[in-house]
Write a structure and sequence with these properties.
Elements: E1 4-9, E2 13-17, E3 20-24, E4 27-32, E5 48-58, E6 71-72, H1 102-105, E7 116-127, E8 133-137, E9 159-168, E10 174-180, E11 182-187, E12 190-194, E13 197-198, E14 202-207, H2 208-215, E15 222-231, E16 238-243, H3 294-300, H4 316-322, H5 338-343, H6 368-371, E17 381-382, E18 389-390, H7 424-427, E19 437-438, E20 447-448, H8 464-468
Antiparallel strand pairs: 1-4, 2-3, 5-7, 5-9, 6-13, 7-8, 8-16, 9-15, 10-14, 10-16, 11-12, 11-15, 17-18, 19-20
Length: 493
Amino acid sequence: MEDSIEVVRDMTRTMVRGRRSLRLASLALTILGGVLCVQSTAVAQPATISIQTTVRDFRDTHPDFERDVDGLDQDIAADQIGNDNKPVYAGGINGTLTTTGPDNFNQWYRDVEGVNARTNFVMDLDRDDQGTYFFVDRAFFPIDDQLFGNEGRAHNYHFTMEMHTTFQYRGGEFVAFEGDDDLWVFVNGRKILDIGGIHSSLSDREELDNVAAEFGLVVGETYTFDLFFAERKTVASEFIFSTSIILNGDVDGDGVPDDEDNCRLDFNPDQEDANNNGVGDACDEDADGDGLLNDDEIDRGTDPFDADTDNDGLDDGEEVDQGTNPIDADSDDDGISDGNEIAGTGPLANFEPTNPNNPDTDGDGLPDGLEVGNTEPVSGGVSEGDGILYAGTDTNSDDYIEDADDDTTTDPNDDDTDDDGILDGNEDANTNGAVDNSIGGVNNDGTGETDPEEADTDNDGILAATDTGPTTPQANDTTAALAPYAAPHPTTN
């Protein structure tokens, strides 16, 4: 590198700040030893920084637009930005030179039905060889023929624009603007540029180092950068913005820098990521990671932001594969959730898994929930994502019976639990889950049901099936304890 490098840039313009004017014809800067500056913090400099802005269109009849008065007006915006990241009107109830008061000004950067209409505009800042970012448009009309339209003119002249982003302060940066009409820039919530008013093209520039102490800027720390612009009157609109600040690109305008945004092209300020895969829900085709695409879930009525819409322990995609209902926690209404039936958990902890699509897995005439002593139906509810309603056990269904005695259970996968040759459902004749009987004795006949857990309910040494007289087992268990008679015979009680 040569010992000296001379950089000359013509910057003929009118500098306006604090009602003072300064004329600069040119600026010559000599760099000795080949070193311009040493920055305290290294920050990558992308070739282009893209930031989404919000543009609001107004009609020319708005009191603050197409006014007869012109001029620089630095009484409009207060020095400190508002808590809502909007300019605070400083003009008082009677207005300023070019504005009519707080009520009308407060509509500039807020959505007001019937007063304005909004859209987005992505501003691309291109870097030059010296590390300065520029956006230059000497005919800046980003919403021509949009929203309220041009109102009979060649361009849409009546709009506002706002930009919000952040940056890391490195030391040595500047920010500058040239154009018309109103322009305010806030750094760390403090006003650093002010070219308010309805006027021809004016310019302003400030070095951040000059205000660092006042604004509380510390090298290496991150601060907010907020820009507000208004085009309020025909017949020109210029927007020439330059800065050596490396602004954090925010192409979707959600306030999250692109290099941190889990959905760079989709507005998602909350950065929600239901399945924690690093891809935000707003741009993840399967936001909850349940194996179903978001559009498919919408069609099915499941929740694209809750992997288990019905909270039954099975992901929605798994339910589709299993044939169960992903918005019904108890598809067969037997009183056991689909997830517990598949996994053999909960009330099935002491049994093998059952069929979630068949309320009577073993076909013995008793619902699975009744066999395992279940006394509580599965509850319905609302999913955690989009708040989708899901069903639980239909307690009016014939397939749900609350167990009258949860201490007596049978095996929902064995139609003859006690291997006495009689189906569990026949032994529990009234299907209430309790053994409703009285054991007989001398001169006292027993009445009621046999016990499906006991092969010899009355402990008389004769199996229940022998007592009641069948010649073959009624159940599917071919190893039943029954020794069938050669011929039918009178039954005992």
